[in-house]
């Protein structure tokens, strides 16, 4: 599966929208039926291409949100798209695309920002906004494999309503091996006194320390990824164990 | 796109997958400019349709460029001394 997921030349192909699901006011999950999907690794992404009537084309990358094979998704794969105001591609994917529509894709791609259940050591996941998408695939892969590797997720969101995968994360967090911690930057729910970004203190309190030998995956908007990666290195983490994915 | 708005090598994976059957984002490349070796996923990628430019995260010099036209994909690899890809 790993071989086929990584070793072949890829061309654009047409997937069909099998289902759509609202996650928040601005984000939704798109379930895709892809003919002959070769399988993928948690953390990989694909490219989506839209073609306008006049032939103008725009393509963007989207992380695969589901694990493969996904007990939850059968033979389909999932993407979760957060709408960027005035964006070219994301508003179409979030508001216009409907069940039964074709969608051009190219993937799966990316073999670096991936986690596999046979990997050694604890796993630290740090996501900002839609950066939680590939991390969710890793959490689902962890659950699907029955892995007992300790995993911690630090997830930075603006406010409680911006949390993507609320019920999913609650369910995953009931496992002894998985710790989910939300950080609210604008507005926190009742009972959560801290409002603010991930800083050195949050990293020290809630992330694995440098001695744990964890592999850390950081994903989100470019400035978020830069800040978190710098904080980790300043806290003594080996840069070689910090993997990043910038969403732009 | 502003300097702060670069992506990383992962963002070039799709375009490169049309040309290479192996995943180049995990390949280790040596920069011709400063001699640094790094996993390609750690390069800085600037997306500026129809092309894509990957720069060394050490010295900012251009490692590779990918331009896709309706008929062909152009690859310019002049900034790389080598790319190391595992055999299996
Ligand atoms: C490897 C990879 C995986 C990705 N996975 C996902 C994913 O799973 N879900 C997802 O929603 N997005 C993901 N993205 C981001 C996605 O590719 C697009 O950049 C995003 O959907 C915006 O595209 P757009 O065409 O709507 O906006 P554009 O027309 O490209 O941009 C409009 C404006 O918004 C700004 N902008 C662009 N992207 C962002 C952003 N991410 N956050 C804030 N402002 C932005 C731009 O600077 C510009 O000013 C991923 C990106 C990469 C490189
Ligand atoms: Zn260099």
UniProtKB/TrEMBL annotation, chain A:
Start and end residues of each FAD-binding FR-type domain: 10-115
Cofactor or coenzyme needed: FAD
Keywords in alphabetical order: 2Fe-2S, Iron, Iron-sulfur, Metal-binding
Stored InterPro entries: Cbr1-like_FAD-bd_dom (IPR008333), FAD-bd_FR_type (IPR017927), Flavoprot_Pyr_Nucl_cyt_Rdtase (IPR001709), FNR_nucleotide-bd (IPR039261), MRET (IPR050415), OxRdtase_FAD/NAD-bd (IPR001433), Riboflavin_synthase-like_b-brl (IPR017938)
Position of the signal peptide: none
GO terms of molecular function: 2 iron, 2 sulfur cluster binding; oxidoreductase activity
Pfam families: FAD_binding_6, NAD_binding_1
UniProt key word Transcription regulation: no
Protein name as annotated: Ferredoxin-NADP reductase
Species for this entry: Kribbella shirazensis
Lineage of producing organism: Bacteria, Bacillati, Actinomycetota, Actinomycetes, Propionibacteriales
UniProtKB/TrEMBL annotation, chain B:
Domain of life assignment: Bacteria
Name of this protein: NAD-dependent SIR2 family protein deacetylase
């Amino acid at each position: 599966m790993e071989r086929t997921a990584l070793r072949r030349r890829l061309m654009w192909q047409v997937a069909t929208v099998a289902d759509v699901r609202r996650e928040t006011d601005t984000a939704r999950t798109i379930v895709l039926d892809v003919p002959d999907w070769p399988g993928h690794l948690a953390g990989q992404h694909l490219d989506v291409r839209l073609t306008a009537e006049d032939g103008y084309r725009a393509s963007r990358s989207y992380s695969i949100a589901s694990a493969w094979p996904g007990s939850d998704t059968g033979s389909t794969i999932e993407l979760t798209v957060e709408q960027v105001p005035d964006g070219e591609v994301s508003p179409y994917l979030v508001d216009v695309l409907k069940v039964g529509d074709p969608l051009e894709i190219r993937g799966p791609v990316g073999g670096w920002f991936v986690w596999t259940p046979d990997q050694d050591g604890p796993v630290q996941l740090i996501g900002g906004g839609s950066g939680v998408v590939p991390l969710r695939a890793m959490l689902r892969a962890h659950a699907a494999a029955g892995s007992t590797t300790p995993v911690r997720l630090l997830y930075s969101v603006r406010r409680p309503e911006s949390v993507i995968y609320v019920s999913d994360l609650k369910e995953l967090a009931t496992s002894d091996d998985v710790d989910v911690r939300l950080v609210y930057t604008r507005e926190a729910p009742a009972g959560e006194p801290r409002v603010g970004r991930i800083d050195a203190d949050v990293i020290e309190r809630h992330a694995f320390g440098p001695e744990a030998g964890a592999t850390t995956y950081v994903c989100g908007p470019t400035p978020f990824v830069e800040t978190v990666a710098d904080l980790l290195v300043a806290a003594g983490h080996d840069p070689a164990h910090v993997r990043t994915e910038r969403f732009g | 796109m502003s300097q702060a708005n670069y992506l990383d090598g992962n963002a070039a994976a799709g375009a490169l997958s049309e040309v290479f059957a192996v995943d180049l984002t995990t390949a280790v490349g040596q920069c011709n400019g400063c001699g640094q070796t790094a996993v390609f996923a750690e390069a800085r990628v600037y997306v500026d349709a129809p092309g894509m430019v990957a720069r060394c995260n050490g010295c900012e010099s251009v490692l590779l460029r990918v331009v896709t036209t309706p008929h062909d994909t152009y690859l310019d690899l002049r900034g790389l001394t080598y790319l190391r890809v595992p055999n299996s």
